[in-house]
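Here is the promised in-class demo. Please do not try to memorize the tokens; focus on the logic of going from shape to residues.
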């Protein structure tokens, strides 16, 4: 949505349920000019949901997640073509196998991969080598690298995975 608001052509490739949350997300993508035509919509599942709690007092945010029960995504041929034709693929670690498959395909086809690293998921080190733009949360960066500050974490991530850019 942010990319679309800034004038970029943006698409969402993922799996949604036909429940009210999935319908809301698909409609919201369309509202903000994000193409969701190649999103897979499955019947009878609960969608992945996130709620963001903002604190004006501490100037912080807390993200709460409900993972739902959607099965893991398997990229379709049409979704693979969209990835190959893109300038940038943004992934997170929530559907790790699909994220790795998409990121690998992107890099093989000269497409930049931006990894928005927020959670310390098991197996996440399999995605990191494909990210040439790495934007981890402070918690991810320090937790993954076992450091206690952003500068040391950024250096370790850069030295281990060689992204072009690390922003914490």
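The designed amino acids, position by position:
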């Amino acid at each position: 949505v942010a990319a679309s608001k800034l004038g970029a052509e943006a698409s969402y490739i993922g799996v949604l349920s036909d429940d009210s949350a999935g319908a809301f997300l698909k409609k919201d993508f369309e509202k903000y000019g994000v193409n969701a035509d190649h999103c897979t919509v499955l019947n009878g599942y609960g969608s992945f949901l996130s709620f963001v709690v903002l604190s004006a007092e501490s100037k912080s945010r807390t993200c709460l997640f409900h993972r739902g029960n959607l099965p893991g995504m398997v990229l379709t041929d049409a979704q693979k073509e969209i990835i190959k034709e893109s300038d940038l693929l943004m992934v997170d670690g929530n559907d790790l196998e699909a994220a790795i498959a998409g990121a690998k395909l992107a890099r093989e086809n000269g497409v930049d991969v931006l990894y928005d690293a927020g959670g310390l998921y098991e197996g996440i080190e399999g995605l990191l080598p494909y990210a040439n733009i790495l934007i981890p949360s402070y918690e991810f960066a320090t937790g993954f690298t076992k450091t206690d500050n952003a500068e040391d974490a950024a250096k370790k991530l850069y030295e281990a995975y060689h992204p072009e850019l690390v922003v914490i």
